[in-house]
Amino acid sequence: MYSHHKQSLDYFVETLQFDPNILAVITAGSIAKGTAKETSDIDVYLLVTDHEFEERKKINRLSYTNHEVCSYEGGYVDVKIINMQFLELAAEKGSEPTSFPMNCC
User: Fold this and answer.
1) Residues 26-67: pLDDT tens digits?
2) Residue 95: exposed, middle, or buried by beta-carbon count in 10 A (0-12, 13-18, 19+)?
3) In 10 A of CB 45, how many CB atoms?
4) Angle 96-103/84-93 helices, nearest 10 degrees?
5) Distance between CA atoms of 38 and 46, rounded to whole angstroms?
6) Per-residue buried b or exposed e for 1-29, using 16+ beta carbons within 10 Å of the residue's own CB
7) If DSSP codes are grouped into helix, strand and coil, which group holds residue 4?
8) For the chain, how long is the longest CA-to-CA vector?
């Protein structure tokens, strides 16, 4: 991970830290795999409470991008909203690349 990715990710997490509906930020994509390029975006899963997930689902807001938190030109955070059920299903039934992060630690 390049330093500008870490700085941007840290700032993104900082903007969410006091939201009680946010349970975790999980890094995904090329940054998580260690294959990121200098210009790569930042892919994350935002683990939220079941209530928050259902509220966002109702308004079709289970993904979004955030350009404001990135410290590098053209950078953005690509956010996918998930709940615990998604993590459990991914660990149980996902392909190896999907389930490995949930089973490795």
Assistant:
1) 999 999 999 999 999 999 999 999 999 999 999 999 999 999
2) exposed
3) 20
4) 110
5) 23
6) eeebbeebbeebeeebeeeeebbebbbbb
7) helix
8) 38
Question: Going from the N-terminus, what domains does the chain have, and what CATH number goes with each?
Answer: 3-86 (3.30.460.10)
Residue 69 structure tokens:
């938190």
Contact between residue 88 and residue 17 where contact means Cβ atoms under 8 Å apart = no
**Token pair of 85 as six digits:** 């059920």
Model-level pTM?
0.84
CA distance 36 to 14: 22
Q: What is the identity of the amino acid at 75?
A: G
Q: Side chain identity at 34, as an amino acid letter? A: G
